[in-house]
Amino acid sequence: MEISTPIARPVNRYQTYHAHVYFDEATRDRATQLCTEAAALHGVQMGRVHSKLVGPHPRWSCQLAFDADQFDRLVPWLEANRGGLTVLVHGLSGNALEDHTAHAAWLGDPAVLDLSVFGG
For 8, how many CA atoms within 13 A lie in the half-sphere containing its CB? Predict the structure, then answer.
């Protein structure tokens, strides 16, 4: 019998956040549209659309930067509009490893991050 670990859902407990929208070649346009709409509707900062692996992310991604005041509007909107895309949401504590592990939560299926980029 296999025991599954519950997926952590995003909770608003930090001052600032990143959301990383994951995509591939087939879903790039959908991800770009999602991030562009998030920036326009919620006033969040949209980063580059990376069609390559960046940092610990195991898939292509686009970053959204936002704060605690934007969290309660943005995260439910992302959940409702992500169209099957996986989104990593994490707080920013100043410790990148903890941000991508202990402070990380998922919309959609979680991915395995490449934590080696944080050293150690």
Answer: 14
